[in-house]
Amino acid sequence: MSLSDGKTQLRTEEMILNVGPQHPSTHGVFRLVVKLDGETVVEAEPVIGYLHRGTEKIAEDLQYTQIIPYTDRLDYLAAMLNNYALCHTVEEAMEMEIPEHAEYLRVIIMEMQRIASHMLFIGAYLLDLGAMSPFLYVFISRERIVELFNEISGARLTYNFMRIGGLRFDAPNGWLQKVRDLVPQLRADLKLCQDLITGNEIFLNRVRGLGVYTTEQALAYGMSGINLRSTGFKWDLRKTKPYSIYDKFDFEIPVGQNGDCFDRYYLHMQEMEQSVRIIEQALDDIPDGPFIGKVPKFVRVPAGEYYTGIEGAKGELGFYIVSDGKDKPYRMKIRKPSFVNLQMLPELLKGQNMANVIAILGAIDIVLGEVDA
Amino acid sequence: MWNWATHPVSWLSFLGMLIGTVVILLLTLVVVMYSIYWQRKFIGWIQLRIGPNRVGPFGLLQTAADVFKLLIKEDIIPNKVDRVLFMIAPIIAFVPSFMALSVIPFSRTHVFTANIAVGALFYLALSAITIHGVMIGGWASNNKYALIGSMRSAAQMLSFEIPLGMSIVGVVLMAGSINLNDIIAGQQHSVWYIIPQVLGCIVFLIASTGELNRTPFDLPEAESELVAGYHTEYSGFRFAFFMLTEYVYLFAMAGLFATLFLGGWSGPWLPGWLWFAIKALIYITFQFWVQATMPRMRVDKVMPFAWKVLLPLALFNLVITAVLKAVL
């Protein structure tokens, strides 16, 4: 018998709960206004914009090279990929030739960055689910990568390392060897993570069958990256629309089956293994040569509209540039995967328990720097 | 064996009780402080960290410093809380946890604790009172997170209390007494009840974890969802009281576990209190180990787990025990 049955009607009210912007599990300054009936979510409304810095508008006043440091701050966990996405778009627009050596180095760095970003996802997600130890374990592996980035670029988080036409510096002596030594280490770290987390019954119980959506839904919301692939749809720009030199490598695109949170978690794991494979191959084939191509003193993108997307850590990261032929973009638009992937959240949360809200939000893997830009 | 209950209450015996209480309280405070230290150190090692090592040698005074800091903090009572309830809630939560300690036999001589006939029952009854403090605290805080946290806490403690009680009944059946000292005596004559009562022991371990609101059942304090659960609005020494409650219960539960399943203070060679300490430490360390290893359970699967898995298991154990008892 429900409470409203019978003659006496018990009046119950829905409770509005503000999750964030200062909440431990919103991955930054994200606010979620949830309407709760007991502990069940009736309605959820994401409120974003707390970290909005107007990157796109600022870019209009900057030369193309000057925009690069701003891209660092989009998805600050994968700054190298952001750097590359911008440089790649400009290079494509200018039909620039990139030296082989630089391209290989870029791929190595980008895949390392992807691993670092995914590692942090694993840690942060498990932290959301209440397990503290994995967070500290993945930080060790992430630290190995960050240390190498520090050595090559001089920074640990916001690298500002990619340049239009190549890279800022060449790899220092012995750096490639260090990466080579890192590969088996990363494999071991990944295995450790698999052993520690993937088989945990409580974890599986928590994330299996949670936050399920179909391929059609995902496509309708314009999702990309792991969020799309978890539904079983094979869409990875590195394969479907190869850029850089990704067509030279032998790697697979893991896809999920159920489109639930577990698939999203597990795909991160599998993707890291593929990234290690790519790094390994790139290290074997890397030729000698210059680390930056011939770049004019002022980078001027010919008038027109250009869009190029790359497979970022979170999904399709694209830069859309409208140029009037000057050394600054007339208008720049960033396709931010986190922002797009986030749009389905209200639909996913409806009818869920409050505890699952965090689990679902965490699996979507947003970075607020990117969502708000 | 000194027994409070058999002596008439006089001013002298009252003084004795008072001294006993203070001694136990101080002992408890030290135990709590060092179990927090041990928790941080132990989990630190598991997580490949060093753990506290700044204050005092090996960081031994870290918790003392933390407690001191909490005590000298301003006592903040937010504007729109129910003042009276907000202020007494930590006390309501703490007192029964401390009283529950009074029946745990620490050693053979049993100096400062009561040897009452219904020890196990007394413990269970008292531990059920704490939930009122938690609920009142959550309600009076006028905070939504605290409210949800305290509701969860109440639901969870109720659900886990029953399998916990049922798993204790198995032991009681074995010993033929509900007095904790008789239970220890029973184990001295035969074997530790962890062997015949292995199923009951497992149920007890899981249910007590739920009862203590510890990982993987730490939903009431799920910091990634509910900020800090029922004590979100508390700070300073009122917060310290809630923390104290939690760890006193951990200690009390460890004592109960040692008494029921590991033979309490009994053991060869070493003095009784040391055996008790070792056995309690095993339970406490087990809890910390689980805490460092496990994620949190899903809230909608915890309560069914308690009712549909633990309770039948405990009842099954009870039936087996009864049958064996009758047959053997």
From TrEMBL, chain A:
It is found in: Cell membrane. The chain crosses the membrane at residues 119-140. Residues 128-298, 299-372 form the NADH-quinone oxidoreductase subunit D domain. Its EC number is 7.1.1.-. It catalyses: a quinone + NADH + 5 H(+)(in) = a quinol + NAD(+) + 4 H(+)(out). The keyword Membrane applies. GO terms for molecular function: NAD binding; NADH dehydrogenase (quinone) (non-electrogenic) activity; quinone binding. It is a peripheral membrane protein. Keywords: Cell membrane, Membrane, NAD, Oxidoreductase, Quinone, Translocase, Transmembrane, Transmembrane helix, Transport. GO terms for cellular component: plasma membrane. SUPFAM superfamilies: HydB/Nqo4-like. NDH-1 shuttles electrons from NADH, via FMN and iron-sulfur (Fe-S) centers, to quinones in the respiratory chain. The immediate electron acceptor for the enzyme in this species is believed to be a menaquinone. Couples the redox reaction to proton translocation (for every two electrons transferred, four hydrogen ions are translocated across the cytoplasmic membrane), and thus conserves the redox energy in a proton gradient. NDH-1 is composed of 14 different subunits. Subunits NuoB, C, D, E, F, and G constitute the peripheral sector of the complex. This is NADH-quinone oxidoreductase subunit D.
From TrEMBL, chain B:
Its EC number is 7.1.1.-. The chain crosses the membrane at residues 12-37, 84-104, 116-137, 158-178, 190-207, 247-266, 272-290, 302-324. Keywords: Cell membrane, Membrane, NAD, Oxidoreductase, Quinone, Translocase, Transmembrane, Transmembrane helix, Ubiquinone. It is an enzyme of class 7 (translocase). It is found in: Cell membrane; Membrane. GO terms for molecular function: NADH dehydrogenase activity; oxidoreductase activity, acting on NAD(P)H, quinone or similar compound as acceptor; quinone binding. One of its GO terms (biological process) is aerobic respiration. It is a multi-pass membrane protein. One of its GO terms (cellular component) is plasma membrane. It catalyses: a quinone + NADH + 5 H(+)(in) = a quinol + NAD(+) + 4 H(+)(out). It comes from the Bacteria. NDH-1 is composed of 14 different subunits. Subunits NuoA, H, J, K, L, M, N constitute the membrane sector of the complex. Belongs to the complex I subunit 1 family. NDH-1 shuttles electrons from NADH, via FMN and iron-sulfur (Fe-S) centers, to quinones in the respiratory chain. The immediate electron acceptor for the enzyme in this species is believed to be ubiquinone. Couples the redox reaction to proton translocation (for every two electrons transferred, four hydrogen ions are translocated across the cytoplasmic membrane), and thus conserves the redox energy in a proton gradient. This subunit may bind ubiquinone. This is NADH-quinone oxidoreductase subunit H. The gene is nuoH.
